[in-house]
Amino acid sequence: MMNKTYPKDREFDNSSFGSSETMLPRNEKDCCNTCTRRCVCITLAVLLVLMVIAAAIACTVTLALPSRTPESRLCTTGNYTGFLCDDRITCLLPSQVCDSSNDCGTGEDETTSLCSNLPDSLPGYLIFRCGNPSVWIYSNYKCNEINNCGDCSDESMTFASCPSCGSDWWTCTPVLYQYCNCIPRSLCKNGVQDCTNWSDEYVCS
Questions:
Q1: Which of 10, 19, 174, 182 could form a disulfide with 169 if both were Cys (CB 3.0 to 4.6 A apart)?
Q2: How far is the C-alpha of 67 from the C-alpha of 102, rounded, in Å?
Q3: For residues 188, 191, 194 and 198, what is the CA-based torsion angle, rounded to 10 degrees?
């Protein structure tokens, strides 16, 4: 009877017998461990490179963004509340907004969002709604002694809170529909009835 012999050129680690690991020769296990460590290192290196690239892109995008526009456009020019440009210095009259002219220089007074649905797209302080709700004017045309609304609601002291006529005007009830509460003094004694009571021809000087 011949004795069976088994090749002994490979040694097995008995400690792994019955474990979840495959019983591999020791030299092959060492190779796998080396490969695993190498893969982990390569993966970490790739992730680090990707993080650096992502950070660089984020910085580039942030720096490329335009400067923040003023939170409020409200400003004062003369006796009027106006529209503040992005330079935070230039203050436009209300009537200069959405007039098809880039009065701010960089066009923020003519943007689509501001001018696409007049007057509702404009800030309330830039407009004045007349006695007829469907009619509106720019707020700097209110109380200028001219009948811009057509019904004098923009010149009525009770409706528009206008001051009394200035020294360059003569207070009366005008004949001309162009005026509301007074007429320019330049019309006094011009040989034409401009006031219903003729005071422009006999009293005004």
A1: 182
A2: 19
A3: 90
Residue 157 is which amino acid?
M
Sign of the CA dihedral with 7 first, then 11, 17, and 23 last = negative
Residue 79 belongs to what domain range?
A: 69-146
Domain membership flag for residue 17: no
Q: What's the rounded mean pLDDT across residues 48-59?
A: 72
φ and ψ at residue 125, rounded to 5 degrees = -75, -5
Structure tokens at 169: 């005007």
Amino acid at the residue 109: D
> Is residue 189 within 8 Å of 168, Cβ to Cβ?
no
pLDDT band at 17 (very low <50, low <70, confident <90, very high): very low
Is the model more confident about 46 or about 77? 77
**Mean of the per-residue pLDDT values for the chain?**
82
Among left, alpha and beta (phi > 0; psi -120 to 50; other), residue 6 is beta
Give the pLDDT confidence of 133-153 residue by residue, as tens digits.
899 999 999 999 999 999 999
Q: Are residues 101 and 133 in the same domain?
A: yes
